[in-house]
C-alpha cells in the first residue's frame, strides 16, 4: 500500500496559515511600552532603615522570619541579614519597597508595612534624586501609608476607577523587586473583591502579575495607564512569587490617603457586633432562601448596634441598600462610613425582613491613634479597649482589656494574639486598663520570654512573647 504524501504546496499553505494565526495572536496582545514611558517617572523607590536587636537566624527563614504557607505582606520587604552575631546586639536593618507620586507637591503613596517602625525613610525619584520623607500617617487595617517629600513639579500618575475593573482584564505593575528599579511585569486580573485573613477592610484585587519583595507599595495599572491598585501581598510557600498576588483597590487607598492627609489617622464607623458566616443550615433555620449576610452572634451592650435595636440572631443582609453577600463584606461597608453617620440595616429576624437605622460610633482605638498611625500599645503591637462589666461577669474576672487590633508581624502577632482576645495579665501582673498595660509593657525586659494570660472564646490560656 502506498502512503499518501501531501503535495509540497499544501504544506506551504498550512505553514503559512499557522504563521498568520500566530501573527494575529501576537497583534492581539497588549503593548505596554507607551504606558511605561508615561508612568515610570511617577514611580519611586522607597528605602527605610531602623535599629533592631539581632536574633540568631535559622534555616527555612527569609529575612530572619519563618515563612508559613499563608497570605502575607513582603515582611517589610527586608532582605536577609548577613550571618554572625548573637542575641542582644543592635544592628541597622534596611528594607526596600516601592511607591508612587499622587501630587505634584510631594505626596507619595505606599504600603504601611514598607515603612513600619522605620527610623529613616528615603524616597528615590526617577531622576535619581534621593530625598528624606516624612510619614504623614499610616493605616495598618488597609496597609496604606502617606509620605511627604520636599519637592515640587513632580510627575503625577493618573488614577483610575478600581470599581470598574473586570476579571480577565490586562494589568501591569512597576516597582523595585529585590532593588531592581522600575521593573515592569504584566498579567491579568484573576479575581476581584478577595477577602484575605486579617484584612477585613480591603476587597483585594487578585492578579497573576509577577510580584516579589521590593514591589510592595508600587502601582498596578490598567491598559489606559491609570493606577487601579497598590501591590501589597502574595501567597507563597517560599517567600517568592508563585502566581498569586494581591493589590489594594485605588478607590480604597485614596479614601484612606485623604483622611491621613487631613487628620493623620483614619476614623472608621463602628457597629459594635460580633459576626459569623451564615451556613446553608443556618440560613434554613432562619427561614432564609439562600446563605447570605452576616449573622450577629453577640453585641457590645453599649455599642451602636445594641442601642439601635439589633439583637443576637439577626442576619444583616443589606447596608444602605448594598447587599451583604457574605459576613466578610459587612466590615468593609461599615468601615467606609464616617462615625456619627446613620446607616439603614436590612435584617432577617425570625424569618421576616425588618429594617433598623443605627448611628455608627468610632472604632474604640481611633482616638488613641497618633499621626504616625501607631496604636496605643506600640511595643506590643496591639490596640486595646476597656471591656464592659457584662464581659467581666461572663468571664468571672475583675480586670482585663480587649484586643481590638493586632499589627501584622508585630510581637503580639508572632505570639498568636487575635482581635477579640481579653488580656488579663502579663508577666504575672494583672491588667485592668489600657494605661496599666502600657506601663507594664514599657517596664518589661527584652531578653527573655514573657508569659501573657488571656481569655479566648471563654477559655483561659497562656502565650509566651518576647519583646523587642
**Domain count:** 4
The radius of gyration over CA amounts to 25 Å
**Order of strands across the widest beta sheet?**
1-5-6-9-8-7
Structural class: alpha+beta
CATH-level-4 superfamily name of the largest domain: Trypsin-like serine proteases
CATH topology of the largest domain: Thrombin, subunit H
Distance between the termini: 84 Å
Mean pLDDT: 81
What is the share of helical residues? 10-25%
Roughly what fraction of the amino acids lie in strands?
35-45%
The oligomeric state is single chain
Contiguous low-pLDDT stretches (5 residues minimum) are: 55-72, 74-87, 366-376
By CATH reckoning, the class of the largest domain would read Mainly Beta
Task: Supply the number of helical segments.
Answer: 10
Largest sheet: 6 strands, antiparallel, barrel
Question: What is the approximate shape?
Answer: globular
CATH architecture of the largest domain: Beta Barrel
Layout of helices and strands, plus pairs?
Blueprint: H1 8-28, H2 33-39, E1 43-53, E2 61-62, E3 65-66, E4 70-72, E5 90-101, E6 107-110, H3 112-115, E7 120-124, E8 130-139, E9 144-149, E10 170-175, E11 183-196, E12 199-207, E13 219-221, E14 227-236, E15 245-249, H4 250-263, E16 269-270, E17 273-277, H5 280-285, E18 294-299, H6 304-307, E19 315-319, E20 322-323, H7 329-335, E21 342-349, E22 352-359, E23 361-362, E24 382-386, H8 389-395, E25 401-406, H9 411-415, E26 422-426, E27 429-430, H10 434-443, E28 450-456, E29 459-465
Antiparallel strand pairs: 1-5, 1-7, 2-3, 4-14, 5-6, 6-9, 7-8, 8-9, 10-11, 10-13, 11-12, 12-15, 13-14, 14-15, 16-23, 17-18, 18-19, 19-20, 19-21, 21-22, 24-25, 25-26, 26-27, 26-28, 28-29
